[in-house]
Amino acid sequence: MQEASALLSLAAVFAVALVSPGPDVALVVRTALHQGQRAGLLSALGLACGILLHGTLVLSGVALLLSRTEWLFELVQVGGALYLGWLGIGAVRAWWRGSAGPRRLDGELTPSLFGPWLRGVLTNLGNPKALVFFLALLSSLVPADMSLPGKVACAALLFGLSLFWFSLLGLTLSRPLMRQRLLQVAPIIDFVCGLVFLLVAASIVGRLLL
């Protein structure tokens, strides 16, 4: 009963956090808009895989060890800030060019069919704020003595909710009529998404310098 209650609380809190604007949402919006439904769904799957890995690291105790190893955690933060900054610059460049047609996104690391998936994984893992968030979320809502099946259920819940939300977002935005309308204001969307990436990257760097 205690574990079921913890899972319900986790689902409620995580669902609210999931729909909040941030780098993950910005990535799905840009990918679905510029590359279509398949790429949008692949990026959604990549984000969900990143969240699953974050959850697994926290539930297994590895994330706590990482956060207490100062130099290693700082290295992760620097890498994440650089990657998110790269995505942000690419989005702002797209806004500056003002091109609204489908194209390969700046910041895609590989031209392979699974490029959007990889970008989704790296965008989520590259945001060290996500690691801190999951540390706080799971340590406060998941009992320390939760059974292994319970922890597996927590990880599956995080993966399932994130995959559902990001896939729904990608499917909605890539519908032909919706996409056609959004492409008319694509430069503005690029600018807003780029700003989100850059602000998160700047906040990471700012925290490191303070």
Automatic annotation (TrEMBL):
Q: Which GO terms describe its cellular component?
A: plasma membrane
Task: State the organism's lineage.
Answer: Bacteria, Pseudomonadati, Pseudomonadota, Gammaproteobacteria, Pseudomonadales
Chain segments annotated as transmembrane:
42-66, 78-96, 116-140, 152-173, 185-209
**Record protein name field:** LysE family transporter
Compartments it resides in: Cell membrane
Ordered alphabetically, the record's keywords are: Cell membrane, Membrane, Transmembrane, Transmembrane helix
Task: Tell me the domain of life.
Answer: Bacteria
> Could you tell me the membrane topology recorded for this protein?
Multi-pass membrane protein
Q: Which organism is it from?
A: Ectopseudomonas oleovorans
Which InterPro entries does the protein's record reference? LeuE-type
Cite a single GO MF annotation. amino acid transmembrane transporter activity
Q: Does the keyword Ribonucleoprotein apply?
A: no
Q: Which Pfam families does this entry report, sorted A to Z?
A: LysE
